[in-house]
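Step 1: inspect the first sequence and its tokens.
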Amino acid sequence: MLMTLRARAVFKNIGRIFLLFLLLLIFVVSFLVGVCWVVFKGPSPAARDLLVVSAMETSAAKFVPRIFFSEEEIQEIIERNSVLPTYTVTDPSSGEESPGGGENVQNPETPAEPLDLSATELVEVSGSTYKGKMLIVNDPSRVYVATPGAFNLPSGGMRVEEMCKRDDALAGVNGGGFLDENGVGDGGCPIGLVISNGVMMNASSSRESDVIGFDSENRLVVGHMTDQEAIDRGIRDAVNFGPILIVNGEPVQVAGSGGGLNPRTAIGQRADGAVLLLVIDGRQAHSLGASYKDLIEVMIEFGAVNAANLDGGSSSLMCYEGEIITTCASLYGSRKIPTAFLVRR
């Protein structure tokens, strides 16, 4: 009898705890919905647009704006705050020598001071809403696309730090996009063209797409092209992603905020050939994230003449000397991915 009373008391206490937890959960969810309602339906169109675009750039939070807006309204907001598409491609005739040897990529008639090709430089970057890292690699021939070796494997992709360790690379950042339904993809299936060390690893399913990669002369080529056009241009390492940010020294046009605030990864190249690898932390207390407009401004500040956005969000990551030196937005740490831009030692 005594045991029965004790058991009843235990179950009663468990029931109270469960009810308290349920009420707390309902309160938190109601509070968050209320906050979202105030922002989405409040008096500030700029805040509304920024939150909508930021959420729609994620894999897992796209459902939030759809609670408050129709698909047509969301699309209108995205179009008002985006990077306008460009069909300009990096000019292949600029420069006749490999970058890094004193040749100016954009204007071969203007000599530049020869770079120390063995040197790299790691720089802190920051803005009003973000903090991140910029890695400057003087020798562009050291930068290449790494993959797990094959795609669509049961094991999925590989983490940036794993690829760096396997290849004994100095550094690495995440590369192109991949199938990532609800933000829980295993990184095993890339989207679009992948070329690694001159070998086509994956083809694009569309007729044309934004190609980001290096040609046989170690020039960063960015622009809208077909797989065949990329091959014809002698692209040695490339991925598909975007948007393109700077082409032939000209920044692309940006509407509104130029995207939401999120973790970002981008790649660029200066006129002297040095490669710029940029990773911005996001969804953190110390760094909300950057827009595409922010990326363009940072790349211009560092002298990029060609630049493009790579995969971002919870995939954004920079590894240097075997250590992850940026803050990953994923709750589970660094993610498995199909492609990365690595830097040889």
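Step 2: inspect the second sequence and its tokens, then contrast the two.
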Amino acid sequence: MKRLLYHILSSKFGAYLEIKILMKQTAKVFGVKSPTGIGFSLSKLLKAYAQLTTDMSLKFIESNQDRNQLQQNLYHMAYRLGNDLRWWLRPQNNLDCFSIIEMLYRNIEISLCEQSETICVHQCYFSDFYTPEVCSIISAIDQGIFAGVYQGGTLSFYRRITEEYEKCEAEFILDDSKYNEKG
């Protein structure tokens, strides 16, 4: 893996850049203009992203449109972002892939770990903003990021903090991964 680029992306600058890109691409999927965020601190930018995703998801829920199509669009947007990161960082194995995921989530104040095929989220910045329905919609972004970074696989949540659980838990199955072993 390209360590220098990883180091840059894991900095405050990298976190700021990540949130700006996520905000722009997510707003595009929802068909709205992204807030500029010019002059925002990192914490204000993250809050603006949380608010954007919450507001747009709630509007979508109220509109009774096809939720599956929105989730597919969010997934594909996030897959492209994850795949781009994969191209830039050049992970050599699944450990490198998880390091990329862990860095991305740390940048947006989500603390996660991997235990076998289970992904656990112990703290999530967005849980203070999201309802269970909003979380369910936006988790398509998580699914796409994981699949893009790993070049395949399926992430399926079965517990969420927004559903009054202590932590989020998801199963991640590498079905089309480039790598067959963990290391």
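Step 3: confirm your contrast with the notes below.
The first strand starts at residue 110 and ends at 115. Helices lie at 3-9, 12-30, 42-63, 67-89, 94-107, 132-150.
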